[in-house]
Amino acid sequence: MRLHGGLPFDNNVITVPQVEREPRNGAEWGERDDEMAEFMHVHQEKWRAAQTVGHTLERCGLWEGREGTAAELWRIPEDYDLGKHRHDTWVSVFILEGAMRYTDSAGERTLGPGDCYFVNPGDTHREETLAKSLVLVVEADPCVSYPVDENGQRTNGQ
Fold first, then answer.
1. Which CA distances in Å does 146 have to 35, 72, 125?
2. Given 20, 98, 105, 112, which is the most exposed site by the fewest CB atoms within 10 A?
3. Which among 127, 138, 146, 137 has a CA at the least distance from the CA of 88?
4. Gene3D superfamilies given for it (predicted)?
């Protein structure tokens, strides 16, 4: 198993030995047991094609539809432009690998591993990858998002 150091002071990859894990209270790993935390190990990740603001990308759901939040990993190819878009709910993005450019009415920022940003509901913005990227997205669920034109008006793409 590999853990990715994502903090600004630690951008190295650390190798951790695989450990055999025993289920508690008869629950299998990844199953719900109200008396314990929920876990997902790397071999349980399920990547699939998913739509976001009119684009099809690879997504791995980690926590979905419970407590009004969702957490998911997204793989985004290099030099990919998600276009100008908006969300009706809040979204938080943590960059695990790669590099991105975030642009909104306040300007442009370049972000890399360990950087994160929070998008308030209704904020129009654009995200572009500068390198192949892996991001952790935590958001309100359901998250309603849609492309907008240069004037900030909703377009037909979804």
1. 38, 18, 11
2. 20
3. 146
4. Jelly Rolls
For residue 26, which of 34, 17, 15 has the smallest C-alpha distance? 34
Kindly write down the DSSP assignment for every residue of 85-148, as one continuous string: EEESS-EEEEEEEEEEEEEETTEEEEE-TT-EEEE-TT--EEEEEEEEEEEEEEEESS--EEEB
Q: pTM value?
A: 0.73
> How far is the C-alpha of 23 from the C-alpha of 144, rounded, in Å?
36
Q: What is the pLDDT of residues 77-88, one digit of tens each?
A: 999 999 999 999
Give the separation between CA 82 and CA 146, rounded to whole angstroms: 11
Residue bearing tokens 């349980």: 44
Pairing, β 2-4 against β 13-15? antiparallel
